[in-house]
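During the reporting period the student researcher (J.K.) took over the structure-prediction task from the postdoctoral fellow and processed the backlog of single-chain submissions. One of the processed entries is reproduced below for the supervisory committee.
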Amino acid sequence: MDLDLDLDATVRNPLAKRSLLDGQTSSQTVDGYACSIAANQKQKRYPPLDGMRVSPAAMETYGYIGSDLVDLLQKLHS
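J.K. obtained the following structure tokens:
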């Protein structure tokens, strides 16, 4: 398998202030909320450029794995 990957890895603590204080939605009410916020921040920081796309590889300190990273791991497994 020939893959050219551009990843930006991050590990977020779902108990951090930024994950808990966002109106009605937070890590207290939504599984993987900190991962979702991290992935959105990475996508904003690295928008697609010249056909290249950076994939966020986000995880939470207590084990939750972000959907982009899960998708990548599934592709690598197959």
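The committee noted the following: The chain is about 35% helix and 15% strand.
J.K. will present the remaining backlog at the next meeting.
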